[in-house]
Each structure stands twice: as C-alpha cells, then as structure tokens.
C-alpha cells in the first residue's frame, strides 16, 4: 500500500516538474496555446473516462456538459456581471444538477439505449444553445467573454493560463486516482465488470452510477469554463454531436479505465488536426477509422493494450 | 384553419413515411442481430447522394438509378458487417456502439470527400401538379414517397411471412441456438439482415432526395429520428416502426406549425427520451427490452 | 469472522419461507415452498435441473420478489426489501456461474464484498480523511485475513480473471464472507471442481459453519452433501417433495423416483 502510494506520488512529482519545464522552455505562443488546449481536453477526457472506462456507462452527449460549463460562465460574466471565479462554481453546479436530473431516468438504461438516450440529450442541449439567441447569441455565437485574472496575475497571458490549466489537470488526476483506489472506485469497477454481482454485493448500482455521472459532468463543465475564458468566444458548433464523439475517441484511444490514458488520448486527438492540417478534409474519415480500428484491434485502448501485450510477452519469457 | 391543419398533416405523413422506412431498417437489424446500428443514418445519406449522382448527374433513368443505388448501398452495408462488425472479438454493447459510431463518422467523411460540402437537390420523380384538397396542396412527390414506402414495407412483410429465407431469419431472431440446431446458417442471416437493413436506408434516402437539400451531413439527424420512430412503435416490429414513423412525422409537423420551426428537431429527441424512460417497449409492443 | 460465540446451539430459525410462489410468464418456477433454516445449520437444497433452486436463491436475496408467500429473516419479513438492504442485514451469496469482477485483483474483489460494512463516500475518498485511511487499512487487513481463512491469500494481487476455476470458486466464497454474513447461500460451489478440491471445499464449509454462519447450499455432489449437511430440502419442478436429515432423504421413495432415479447423478 505504502509502496503503491509512493509510486503514484512519484509520478505526480514528475508530472509537476514536466509542467514547469515545458512552461518555462516553450517560447512559441502557438505551442503554448496548443498545450493549453491539450490540458483542457485532458480534463474533458478524464471526466468521460471516469464514467465510461471505470463505471462502464457510455455517454454520447458529453459535449452538453462541456457546453453548459462554457455557456453558464459566459452568460453570468457577460450578462450579469459576475466575477468569473464566482461563475465557476455556478457553472459546475448547474452542470452537475442537470446531470443529476438527466441521469436519474437515463442511467436506468444500459448499452445501446443509454447511448441513444445521452445522444438525444446532447442534441437537445445543442439545440437550446442554438435557438435561445437572447441568452446564448444563437448560432452566430457568444463574444466578449472576459479573460481570467487573480489580483495582479492576468491569465490573458497564455503562459499563465497554461500553468492554471495544467495544475488543474494535476489536481483532477489526484482526485480521480484517489476515487478509483477507494471503496467508491472499487464499487464502480465492480459495476463495470458485472452489474449483477455488484448488486449482489450490496452496491446500490443506481446511486453509484448517478454519482459518477454527476462527477463526470462537473469535470466537463470545468473544462468548458476554461475553454470559454481562454478563447473568449463560444458557439454551438464547439459543443455539437461530433465533439461528443471526439471526447469518446480520446477515451477510447488513450485507454478506458486509465487516468494517464486520458492524457495520451487528449494529446493525440488535439494534435491530430494540427498534423492533418493540410488534409483537414480527412479529419472525419480518420476519426472514424481510428474508432473502428482501436475497438477491433485494441479494445482496451493504447495504454492498456500495449501494456497487456508487454505483460504477455514478459510472462511468456518467465515461463520457459 | 382546416386547410392549415390538412397541410401540416400532409407534410407530416410525407416525412413520417420516410422516418418509418428508416425505422424499419433499425428494427429489422435489431430483431435479427440485437444490434443497433448508429451508422444507419449515413446509409440514408449515401442513398440520397447516390441518387443525386446517378440520376441527377449522370442522367441514368430513374428506375435503373433507384435499383443501382439501393444495391450499391446495401453492398456497403454488407462490407461494413464483414469488415467491422464480424471482426470484433468481444461484442459487448459499448464496443459495438463505438464501432458503429466510428463507422458513421467514417462514412460521413467519405461522403464529404466524394460530394463536397455543397447541398444538392433533385427534381420530383414526376412533374404532376399538386392536388388541391380543401385548399391544402398535396405534392406528387408526397404520393410517391408514401407509395414507395408502403410498397417496400409490404414487400418485406411478404418476405418474412412467405419465403423460407425470411422465416429462417425470424427463427434466427428468436433463438440463435435453436436456429443453429435446425441447421439455419445464422451467420449468413446476419449478413442478409445488414444487406436488407442498409438497403432500406438507401430507399429512404432516395425518396427523400427530391424534397430536401442533400448533403454529406444529412444522415445523422435522419438516423436519429428513424431510431426515435422505431422506439415509438416498438423496436423489432415492422408495422410498429412504420406507425412510429407516421406518429413522429405528424407530431413534428404539427409542432412546427403551431409552435416554432426552430424546435422541430427537439421534438423528436424529447419524444425519444420520453419513450426511453416511460415505455421502452414502444407504444404498441409492450415487449420487455432485453438490455434492461 | 470475529464472532465465534454464535454456536449452533441456538435453534431458532434464521430463515423461514412461507408458501413461496414464483412464475416467469407461463412457467411456474416455484410453487408453495415452505421450510425453516435453523441458525448455525448447513442445509442443502437439491433437485434436478430446472427445479427452481437458483430461482429460490434469487428470491431470498431480493433479486426477484415472490408472487405470493413471505420470507422471514431472523423473524422479520424481508419481502420487498432491496438487495443491498439484505446484504446489510447479513445475507450473502455466490453464483452458479462464477461472477467475479474480472478486471480487479483478488484482494480488491474481496474488499468489494465489504461494501456494506464500510462507509467511505465520494468526499472522504477524495480528501483522504484519517478515518477513511484507517477504514481502508482495516478493510484490507480483514480481506487478507478472510483470504487466508479460505486459503487463497497467496493470490491477493493476481487479477481475478487469471485465476484457475477452483481458485475462482474459493475467491467467490471469500468475497461473500467478507460482508460478514449470518446466512451464506452457495449455488453449486463444487461444480467444476475435481475430487481433491471438492474434499477441501467440504472442510472449508465446515470451518465456515464453525464460525457460526448458517449455510444454505445448492449442490449436485451427493457425497459432499451427505458429508456436511444437517438437513436437506428436495425440490422437483418447483415444488418441495421432501425434507429431512440426509439419512431420511436418502431413503425417501419420492426422492428416489423423482430425483435420483431420473438424473444421472
Ligand atoms: N429470469 C428468468 N426468466 C424466465 N424464466 C426463468 C428465469 N429464471 C429461471 N427461469 C425458469 O425457472 C425454472 C427454474 O430455473 P432455476 O434456474 O431456478 O433452476 P435450477 O434448479 O437452479 O436448475 P439448475 O440445476 O440447472 O441450475 C426454469 O424452468 C427456468 O427456465
Ligand atoms: Mg441453478
């Protein structure tokens, strides 16, 4: 147990130092911004991974919570003059409240029906963003979201924003890891492996799923908050169905049930469009192919899949 | 007032027939494989854009183009089953959802690469004047749509009830193991189910082409509405699906007419969530859904 | 595990079934089943395939509710209670087809068994309060102790899906035991085990009984049943056809013809 904790702490320390080094050494504005986006997407992927990878419940509408976070802070800061730091808890709480209300009936569903249910929910929220123009600016979007600042530190400085986002990523990792290696995390993984047996062990599967759904929505809203204040402009397109799929792809590629996999998946998927810049037309084809190929070849995702292959070859060597 | 109502009804029935045909595709596949194909809408898109190219572009006579497109799209569905679905090692729902969603994005991307981002339209199947009924106009294309939709559903019905292959498919749906014991090749039945289901998707795309703007991204919404219709009528039931389609179409057009057109798409999703929560067996078929 | 003073001398019924009935669609899976299970006893439930044994387990554990009749646990009716409430009051079970949490280690599986005996929630998991750390350590220790009791502590850190079938069966028992049950329901615990393993299982079940835990087991292995059970209830096609001591049941005509005569066991 102690050993285990130490290994985790070590990886956090390495992670922290890596953030500091990257933050200090990368000069190019564009790259710092790209890295910040990766951080935001990591939070997003982590949120869905907790739900999908650990508890085994699919959501095809997670962009809705991302959007709720972004739009809530936009509306509160611009229309009602809130400080962003006051808008942040409001955004997260609202998102969690919506997740609670939606999850109550939806999480009774499973498999395909949960997929369709969450998809439908995501569509409705997207339509609301688009049609409630007086609040959200409609399909032309919402401009003029103020930048973040704490006292003298302004986060319109991209480097500061980078630190802010990545420290949040680190904290989210610690929180998620702690959850996973606790009674709650074990119960969630139990639901994933066998819902029947989990129920027979006295786990209130319905409450458990609901709680992780709400937690996951909270993380997504946090990501949305950062996005809104980083870009200062949001539009419904940023929170559409295809974005929900993008989040699923991050989780699937990086590896379900792997916290570090979320980082990997988010990094790959944020940089992919940059690499494919010349062929942005191919973006969708590539996403689709990735999803299918990973599911067919490495259903555990890259981190887990490669780790499994490594373990298998090693154990083969062990047994002559 | 009556005239307005009638007009909405016409457009509702027209759209409803299309939703119904899409729903039938979902239902058929579900009843023989227990799979829900999230990419189904993209086959509708392929059908519509296929017709745009063959009939509108190359000028191939309509009946021939119709047939070619349906067969072509069904072959794509066939390949999809072979290459993506069959190869899955652990076919649990979450994996299959992700694979079919992946296929949907992939096909949409292919659609965009092939036809670009433009929207196309084709003329109605025949240029008769609209029929005037109590002041409301009934377009000739509407009659074509409803007629063709019913024609194909009846055809499917006869196929399942009268032919040996059709009966075998139903047997497979009822019990894979029993079907296997009696020597019905269930793998081939699954392939056939994909073939027919995606073919029906293409039919829906073809008949809708003249009354909508056809573009690479039209499939998702249509697919979702088709699924909604199938859930409404009872997933797995042929006539239930068609009925669900009509109900959805009519409710939608009444909603647009009397409330606001911006809420059109939201109606389908509210209905979908409602039915998922309240009566997942559909309004007609109170059959338990297995995955609950 | 730490309550050895509940001896099997107390002979009040721990579980009482009063004319239980359950039908699935047209199939009458159980009809008019009544029997008592005295505290500290090992009671076997036997019957041919499809007799309704597993269904009876599902009724006792609250997965299904009976169509009619009532179930009393420790004198209190438990009809309509949720599964997790029943685990809380002390009913644990294993499954006919082993249902472990495959992606988790053996130790974690056993720790999940303690779910209802521990309290740590979302918030305390995240903040790692001192009591939560203490609870976690205690829970781990208890799990290891139970694994040692069952004889699988050397497997603690192996992934449960990698274990051999015999170990998996034992792990399921350990997982059930770790919820500190008063009544343990075992669904065919010896199925798939070889003769040596079955003999060891018999010894383990006696050890469990000596801890004061009441056992109700479904089993096809007559040797094991005759060896360890105090009483036997026989079901056939959803009805109880006999009940008594192993000796009585063995010589019962109805059982001979309905069960032993017809099945290959
Ligand atoms: N969930 C269910 N839905 C429908 N029928 C069921 C269900 N569970 C059990 N049955 C039916 O109830 C009857 C009793 O089944 P049960 O599993 O209890 O038998 P069993 O005694 O455990 O048999 P075995 O020795 O094969 O395990 C069978 O006819 C079975 O088909
Ligand atoms: Mg059984």
User: What's the domain count of chain A?
Assistant: 1
Strand elements of chain A, count: 2
* SS class of chain A: mainly alpha
Structural domain count of chain C:
2
Number of strands of chain C: 10
Radius of gyration of chain C (Å): 19 Å
What is the CA-based Rg of chain A, rounded?
20 Å
* Basic shape of chain C: globular
Low-confidence stretches of chain A: none
Helix content of chain A: over 70%
Return the string of H and E elements of chain A.
HHHHHHEEHHHHHHHH
The CATH class of the largest domain in chain C is identified as Alpha Beta
One letter per element, helices H and strands E, the order of chain C comes to EEEHEEHEHHHHEHEHEEHH
Beta-strand proportion of chain A: under 5%
What this model shows, in words?
The complex is a heterotrimer of chains A (320), B (292) and C (265). Chain A is mostly helical and 320 residues long. Chain A has one domain: ABC transporter involved in vitamin B12 uptake, BtuC (Orthogonal Bundle). Chain A is built from 14 helices and 2 strands. Chain B contains 11 helices and 2 strands; from the N terminus they run ααααββααααααα. Chain C contains 10 helices and 10 strands. Chains A and B meet through helix 5, helix 11 and helix 13 of A and helix 4, helix 9 and helix 11 of B. The structure holds adenosine-5'-triphosphate (ATP) and magnesium ion (MG). Adenosine-5'-triphosphate binds at residues 24, 27, 29, 47, 49-55, 96 of chain C.
Features:
heterotrimer, A: 320 residues, mainly alpha, ABC transporter involved in vitamin B12 uptake, BtuC, two-stranded antiparallel sheet, 14 helices, globular, C: 265 residues, alpha/beta, Rossmann fold, six-stranded mixed sheet, four-stranded antiparallel sheet, 10 helices, 37% helix, binds adenosine-5'-triphosphate, binds magnesium ion
